[in-house]
Amino acid sequence: MELRTLRYFVAVAEELHFGRAATRLHMSQPPLSRAIRQLEAELGAVLLARSPTGVTLTPAGTVLLDEARALLGRADRLRVRVSAAAGVATLTVGILGDGTDPGVSRLAAAYRRSHPGIDVRVRDTDLTDPTCGLRAGLVDVVLTRAPFDETALTVRVLRTDPVGVVLRADDPLARRDRLRLSELGDRSWFRFPDGTDPVWQSYWNGGRPREGPVVRAVQECLQAVLWNGTVGLAPLGHGARHDLPAELAVVPLTDMAPSRVVAVWNEGDGNPLIRSFVDIAAAAYGR
After folding, report:
1. Distance (Å, rounded) from C-alpha 87 to C-alpha 2?
2. Of 135, 181, 244, 254, which residue is most buried, by most CB within 10 angstroms?
């Protein structure tokens, strides 16, 4: 029984859906299904009751979920302690979308000064996973934007940014000083792939279902606006606004909740490197 397979099982058990679990793990569904069936064969027990709408945990699956979470937590702590004892402690940081935020630069400099012996590895991810592989065990801590599903996660707010709508510069609405979401109701919006965290998807779609091109990365969002006249939302201020080509414009929205820059880690993870990272991040971002 491999730790990776247990991480797969925990993802399916928490999502109660193979498709969403596959999206969360950044893998396709068939190998995930095969891995779970192999795990069931190894244990000699059915762990999940499958149906067309999703899955439910069997009694055996409920027991395994509790044990797997505990085992994975111990494995993570073991890795940190052994690495620290060997003098090669590593912290893997996930960063969503755009690492050019000045807060990231200040954090990197401050963390290097405080922890010169720590090997910091960065995993930069696209917009389809706001937690950057945290649930799959690919990173230790994440710098990202909320809101998203915070189940079994600890979140600390570092900063809030206002939000605007990205438009082509020749769009009549681009000449406005500010806009409301209701004024964009008839537009085509860029949206994220099916299976993306629904809380995250809803926020960036202005709280309602939208139709439009599917995008995964910041540049895809901008190109969708540039080529197709699509609209979408983007954070403003504090270096959050991307360097836009002259053909694009951003107009602030007056009725959109601010975007929160946050540090996120797994609930109950006592890794001291994470605690130190989050404290330094809060200072770097001014919180």
Report:
1. 26
2. 135
Strands (E), the chain: 48-51, 54-57, 90-96, 119-125, 141-146, 153-161, 163-168, 232-235, 248-252, 259-266
Q: Helices (H), strands (E): how many in the chain?
A: 8, 10
Tokens matching residue 233: 């939302």
Dihedral sign, Cα of residue 190, residue 194, residue 195, residue 199: positive
Q: Is the dihedral of CA 144, 147, 153, 156 positive or negative?
A: positive
C-alpha span between 61 and 9 (Å, rounded):
9
User: In this structure, which amino acid lies at residue 261?
Assistant: V
Give the CB-side neighbour count of residue 58, counting CA atoms within 13 A: 11
pLDDT 10s digits, 56-115 = 999 999 999 999 988 987 886 676 677 667 666 789 999 986 566 888 889 999 998 888
CA–CA dist 156, 255 (Å, integer): 24
pTM (global) more than 0.85: no
